[in-house]
């Protein structure tokens, strides 16, 4: 058993959970998770969350509106996985489309994870206060380490021999 496997077994935590919304940063979060999996342990669980606010629920039932939010979330997730990894996805990758509030679902999904990786859309000030911040809520409430990616281009994590 490798040292990484022993650490994962001792901590009781497994894998990396990644929040995926189709944004460039969520695609980069998937790539980061794949690079970090040898250290943190696997599998990678990619999670796309969909939620219909109460104010919009009435529209879903109108005749002529053919909208399936779960199917849309699964499509966004599949497209993001394709963009991040191409045809060769990491071994054991799990893809989930889940209904709920994004920060709550990601915190719950990462409860036994070794790490949670999310992108930040950079909403600060009033907009961040009004809309909330998934990355901030995850960082505050997750029981595992949380990696929040900022900006369009994020440097690769240092390799084993480099210093951060």
Automatic annotation (TrEMBL):
InterPro entries: Rossmann-like_a/b/a_fold (IPR014729), Universal_stress_UspA (IPR006015), UspA (IPR006016)
Pfam families: Usp (PF00582)
Start and end residues of each UspA domain: 14-150
Upper taxonomic lineage: Bacteria, Bacillati, Actinomycetota, Actinomycetes, Micrococcales
Naturally occurring in which organism (per UniProt): Sinomonas flava
Superkingdom of the source species: Bacteria
Family: Belongs to the universal stress protein A family.
Protein's name according to its UniProt entry: Universal stress protein
């Amino acid at each position: 058993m490798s040292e990484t496997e022993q650490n994962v077994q001792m901590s009781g935590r497994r894998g990396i959970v990644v929040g995926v919304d189709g944004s460039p940063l969520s695609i980069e979060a998937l790539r980061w998770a794949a690079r970090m999996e040898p250290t943190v342990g696997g599998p990678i669980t990619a999670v796309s969350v969909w939620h219909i606010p109460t104010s919009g629920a009435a529209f879903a039932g109108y005749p002529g509106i053919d909208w399936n939010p779960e199917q849309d979330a699964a499509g966004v997730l599949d497209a993001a996985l394709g963009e991040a990894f191409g045809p060769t996805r990491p071994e054991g990758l799990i893809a989930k489309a889940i209904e709920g509030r994004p920060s709550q679902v990601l915190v719950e999904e990462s409860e036994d994870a070794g790490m949670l990786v999310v992108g930040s859309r950079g909403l600060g000030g009033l907009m961040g206060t009004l809309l909330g911040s998934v990355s901030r809520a995850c960082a505050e409430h997750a029981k595992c380490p949380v990696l929040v990616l900022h900006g369009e281009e994020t440097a690769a994590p240092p390799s084993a021999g480099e210093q951060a």
